[in-house]
């Protein structure tokens, strides 16, 4: 690019997206004189889903602004908790976030998940069609223009991913009400009604069951319940709001 030079300050939370030489508190950027602030910010590696506000010479400015020589651009991170107006808070997770999807569902959070790679255009279109916040660690995917709303998942560790999403969006938690396999709602099930779906040992040992109203999967408090209960209690202790 060979155009106006501007100074850009990225919020500390956003500097991780930039190449090392751009992670200073203030860095000079030469633009092409035609690209918007949004394009300039994305060219630095920062997805606009992570931008909470842009200020030019101290004035709140839309990302459609075309920067002029000598301007100082301050890029702020999204405020937490982040509100997503326009639809009930629901999520869509890409193929790499299966464990996070199951943990969100365990907590009763509506989390659709694509277990196969359907491609970035299809994922972004699905986010728009269903008005779901797309969660991903793929910055290219989060730059898709057809995307309705999105958020970068900052960690590759499921425990940290869950804390990140719950802290950012503060969804209402309703543990044990959603199928971890398909995201459908659960309802109490009579043992006799689901008997044919149970192995003999399960029928003999357990009496309390729930069943998914969508895929009909049956749930009970089996060997993994203590581990799942620990996940639930940690989340409720830190993020549940009255």
Automatic annotation (TrEMBL):
Domain Ubiquitin Mut7-C: where? 4-82
- The membrane spanning regions, by residue number, are none
Against Pfam families, the record matches this protein to:
Mut7-C (PF01927), Ub-Mut7C (PF14451)
Domain Mut7-C RNAse, first and last residues per copy: 90-231
**Which regions form coiled coils?**
none
Q: What is this protein called?
A: DUF82 domain-containing protein
The protein's organism comes out as Streptomyces sparsogenes DSM 40356
């Amino acid at each position: 690019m060979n155009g106006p030079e501007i100074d850009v300050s990225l919020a500390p939370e956003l500097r991780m997206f930039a190449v090392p030489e751009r992670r200073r508190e203030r860095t000079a950027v030469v633009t092409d004189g035609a690209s918007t602030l949004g394009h300039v910010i994305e060219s630095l590696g920062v997805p606009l889903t992570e931008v909470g506000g842009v200020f030019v010479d101290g004035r709140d400015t839309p990302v459609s602004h075309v920067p002029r020589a000598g301007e100082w651009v301050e890029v702020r991170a999204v405020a937490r908790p982040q509100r997503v107006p326009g639809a009930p808070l629901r999520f869509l997770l890409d193929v790499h976030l299966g464990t996070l999807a199951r943990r969100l569902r365990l907590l009763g959070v509506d989390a659709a998940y694509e277990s196969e790679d359907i491609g970035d255009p299809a994922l972004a279109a699905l986010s728009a069609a269903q008005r779901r916040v797309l969660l991903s660690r793929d910055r290219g995917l989060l730059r898709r223009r057809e995307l309705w709303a999105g958020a970068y998942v900052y960690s590759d560790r499921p425990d940290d991913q869950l804390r990140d999403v719950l802290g950012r969006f503060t969804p209402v938690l309703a543990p044990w009400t959603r199928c971890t396999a398909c995201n459908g709602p659960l309802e109490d099930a009579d043992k006799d009604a689901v008997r044919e779906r149970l192995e003999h040992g399960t029928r003999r040992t357990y009496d309390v069951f729930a069943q998914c109203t969508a895929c009909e999967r049956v749930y009970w408090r089996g060997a993994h319940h203590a581990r799942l209960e620990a996940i639930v209690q940690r989340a409720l202790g830190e993020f549940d709001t009255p």
